[in-house]
Amino acid sequence: MYTKDWHLFGWISLGMGCIGLVICPFLPESARWLVSQGKCEEATKVLVKMAKENGKDGNKDIIGGDVKYLVDENKTVPKGSLRTIFSNGRLCFNFIMLTICISTSTFMLDMTYLNATHMGGYKFLNVIILFAAGFAGGSVGGLFMIVWAKMRRPLQQSGTNFFLLLFVHRLQDSLSL
C-alpha cells in the first residue's frame, strides 16, 4: 500500500495540476467578469446562451442593452489595484492574514509530505526549505496566471496549483541525492 519512493506521488500530483490547465480553456467565461472587462458582445453571447438553456426568452437586443448599461456604469467606478490593498490598513491586514493562513496550510501539507517520504538530511531544515519552495511556487504561479490569464479565475487557480506542485516536486527531486 505504501511506497518509500515519493516520485510516484509527486508525478500524480503534478498530473492532477495539468488536468486543471487542460480543461480550463473549455470552461465558459463568467458574464460578470466579461462585463467588468468591458467586453459587451462576449457577455451578451454568454447571457443569451444561458437564457436559452434555462428556457427563457434570450432577446439579444434587450440583454445587450442591459450589458452596455452595466459596462457604462462599471466605467465610472474606480478600479482597484495591488496598491489599493496596501494603502488601506484593513485590507492590508486581511491580505497579510490570508497569506499567513495559506502559508501555514502549505507548511502543514509539506511537513506531512516530508514525514511520509522520509527525506534524508536535517529534517527541520528540509521542512523550512520545502515550505519556502511551496510559497514561491504559489506566488509565482499566481502572479504568472494573473498576467497570462488576465484574471480568469479557474485558470488562475489551476495554474497556481500547477506551479506550486511543480516547484515542490522539482525541489524535492534536487534535494534527495
UniProtKB/TrEMBL annotation:
Its membrane topology: Multi-pass membrane protein
Protein origin, superkingdom: Eukaryota
GO molecular function terms attached to this record: transmembrane transporter activity
Keywords tagged on the record: Membrane, Transmembrane, Transmembrane helix
Subcellular location per the Swiss-Prot or TrEMBL entry: Membrane
SUPFAM superfamilies associated with the record: MFS general substrate transporter
GO CC, one annotated term: membrane
Cited InterPro entries: MFS_sugar_transport-like, MFS_trans_sf
Transmembrane domains' residue ranges: 6-27, 91-109, 124-148
Protein name as catalogued: Solute carrier family 22 member 16
